[in-house]
């Protein structure tokens, strides 16, 4: 009986994976080569005459959005954050909004079906504009999402950003967005003393310019209770995704040494991109 139930669940999973694959033309038409496991991390810019197809993984608060967005500007590829797609859907007050609001405000994950649908529409919109390549931020977050993505296109590189646990909660709680221009800031400065073999770490706050200062808002899911739930769910559901890519030789682990001024040049170095960006390093 138990075996049957397990087999039925596995069959459902298989069907669900198949139906995701056919749910959008992007998902159907994309280059399909799930067996293409890279033996080396392909860090160079153009892989097989197309733009990079990279993924950023990491816990809430680690700074995926910040670094993925900077790299997308540098490499001229779209930065696609599934969290932003979810927030756009919420503010559109469309048919999904009510359902998503409850899930997001509890710190839970949106269903694989919904998130894949939102992402595939976004990828189609990019292709329609003639854009190629992407840096995905916040996707995949479950093994099923990773398997689906692998079924439709080849990911060149997965950057796993890591930050000391003490800093993650404070960074989420310090996050602010300007309600007018959408600029992202962080009012938390992190100052961790050296102890038990761990070096000291300092991350300066990223303060807004005066014209944004009075218009700052926080995300409704950046409360202490919800962030703790998101961190727990990341460890349960998303850490296995790190292993998924590690076993395919695609995972680049990157420990953030501090704030943007310390981390950005080191990240570029790790990606063999340090020649690309004198301007952005200076501005960091
Ligand atoms: P975080 O700071 O937790 O990385 P995000 O902005 O990436 O936050 O995502 C916000 C919320 O959107 C998540 O807590 C989750 O509810 C939903 N979400 C985003 N991406 C995914 C995904 N790939 N799968 C399921 N839910 C997602």
> Could you list the spans in which at least 5 consecutive residues all have pLDDT below 50?
1-23, 29-46
Number of strands: 10
Task: Determine the fraction of residues in helical runs and give it as a percent range.
Answer: 40-55%
Topology as a string of helices (H) and strands (E): HHEHEHHHEHEHEEEEHEHEHH
Shape: globular
How far apart the termini lie comes to 59 Å
Report strand %.
5-15%
Question: Treating each run of at least 4 consecutive H or I residues as one helix, how many helices?
Answer: 12
Largest sheet: 5 strands, parallel
Provide the structure class.
Answer: alpha/beta
Assembly state: single chain
**Overall residue-averaged pLDDT value:** 84
Give Rg in angstroms.
19 Å
What small ligands are held by the chains?
A: adenosine-5'-diphosphate
Strand order of the largest sheet: 2-3-1-4-10
Detailed description of the structure:
With 284 residues, the protein is of the alpha/beta class. It is built from 12 helices and 10 strands. The protein has a 5-stranded parallel sheet, with helices on both faces. A 3-stranded antiparallel sheet has the order 6-5-9. α1 (2-21) packs across α7 and α4 packs across α5. It binds adenosine-5'-diphosphate.
């Amino acid at each position: 009986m138990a075996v049957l139930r397990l087999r039925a669940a596995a069959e459902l999973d298989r069907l669900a994976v198949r139906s995701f694959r056919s749910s959008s033309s992007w998902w159907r038409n994309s280059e399909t080569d799930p067996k293409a496991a890279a033996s080396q991390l392909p860090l160079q810019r153009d892989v097989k005459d197309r733009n990079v197809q990279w993924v950023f993984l990491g816990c809430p608060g680690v700074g995926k959005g910040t670094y993925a967005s900077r790299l997308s500007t540098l490499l001229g590829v779209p930065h696609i954050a599934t969290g932003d797609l979810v927030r756009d859907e919420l503010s559109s007050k469309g048919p999904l909004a009510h359902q998503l609001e409850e899930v997001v405000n509890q710190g839970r994950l949106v269903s694989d079906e919904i998130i894949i649908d939102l992402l595939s529409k976004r990828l189609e919109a990019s292709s329609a504009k003639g854009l190629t390549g992407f840096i995905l931020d916040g996707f995949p977050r479950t093994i099923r999402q990773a398997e689906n993505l692998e079924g439709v296109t080849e990911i060149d590189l997965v950057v796993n950003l890591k930050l000391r646990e003490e800093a993650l909660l404070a960074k989420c709680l310090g996050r602010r967005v300007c309600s007018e221009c959408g600029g992202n800031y962080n009012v938390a400065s992190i100052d961790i003393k050296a102890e038990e073999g761990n070096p000291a770490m300092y991350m300066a706050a990223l303060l807004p310019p005066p014209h944004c200062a009075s218009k700052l808002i926080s995300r409704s899911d950046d409360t202490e209770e919800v962030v703790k739930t998101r961190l727990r769910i990341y460890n349960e559901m998303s850490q296995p995704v790190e292993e998924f890519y590690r076993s395919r030789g695609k995972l680049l682990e990157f420990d953030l040494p501090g704030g943007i001024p310390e981390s950005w040049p080191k990240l570029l170095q790790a990606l063999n991109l340090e020649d690309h960006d004198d301007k952005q390093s200076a501005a960091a």
